[in-house]
Structure formats: structure tokens, C-alpha cells
Amino acid sequence: MAMSGGGGEDDEVLSEMNVTPLVDVMLVLLVMFIVTASAVTTSVHVNLPKTDAVAPPDTKEPLVIAVDKSGQYFLDDKAMDLDTLKQKLAAAHQQNPKVAAQLQADEGVPYGKVGKVMAALQANGIQKIAVLSSPQ
């Protein structure tokens, strides 16, 4: 009589699924989503000034006003002059009196341009204003 060397059947089928590759793929996808989502904020390129704290308002859809290096005004990525911007701000406040605004101004823009935008926001009753900057 010959001795059996294994103690079990060799024909056993492994019925467990290896989930390690699935978890690896999901983590890679999650990291890529986080990296790309934080990079997509607006299509108008401005160099934001550096500050210690950045706190945008807690609203669902704030108005995004940008002033680029050349002093051109943008409202939600659409270029316009100051008078048109004032009209759009008045219309936005009329639709939603609690509307908030985020102001993105290039660090090379003269303060007067930014001051005109802030005065237009205040004149139209928009009180929640966040001036965006980059962390140091």
C-alpha cells in the first residue's frame, strides 16, 4: 500500500475570487479623479495672490468673476466690459437675492480694477464675496 503525500484531493477547484487587482484599479481611478477634479476650476488663467487662508462662500453656484492680467473682466468664463458686468450682476441678484460671488484677480492687476468689481458687487446688493487666492 502506497502512502498518500498530500492529504487532500488534487482535483479541488479554487472558487474564491481574487479582489486585490480590482481594489488596485479602483484606487488608481480614485487618485486620478481627485487629481483632475482639483485642477479643473475655470478656463480663465489668472495668477492668484498668495494668502494663508482661503474660504469661498458656502453656496451651490456662486458667480465666478475673473480679472485677467490685461485687465479684462470675465463672468463665468465670458469676457465683457465693466458696464455689461454690472448689468449681469444686477440680473443675477434679481433672480437670486442670496447669490454669492467669487472674485479671481490676477496678482498683477491694479487694485483699481478689483475695486471697481467689488463696488459693482456691493452696488447690486451682492454681499457674499470671496476673493480667491492660492495657498502659500
From TrEMBL:
Q: Does the keyword Cell membrane apply?
A: yes
Compartments reported by the entry: Cell inner membrane; Cell membrane
Transmembrane regions listed in the UniProt entry: 20-40
Task: Please give the Gene3D superfamilies that the UniProt record associates with this protein.
Answer: 3.30.420.270
The membrane topology noted for this protein in its Swiss-Prot or TrEMBL record is: Single-pass type II membrane protein
Q: Which domain of life is it from?
A: Bacteria
| CC terms in the record's Gene Ontology section | plasma membrane
Question: What keywords tag this UniProt record?
Answer: Cell inner membrane, Cell membrane, Membrane, Protein transport, Transmembrane, Transmembrane helix, Transport
Q: Which GO terms describe its molecular function?
A: transmembrane transporter activity
Query: A single GO BP annotation from the record?
Result: protein transport
Spell out the InterPro entries in the cross-references.
Answer: ExbD
Protein family: Belongs to the ExbD/TolR family.
| Oligomer and partners | The accessory proteins ExbB and ExbD seem to form a complex with TonB.
Q: Under which name does UniProt file this protein?
A: Biopolymer transporter ExbD
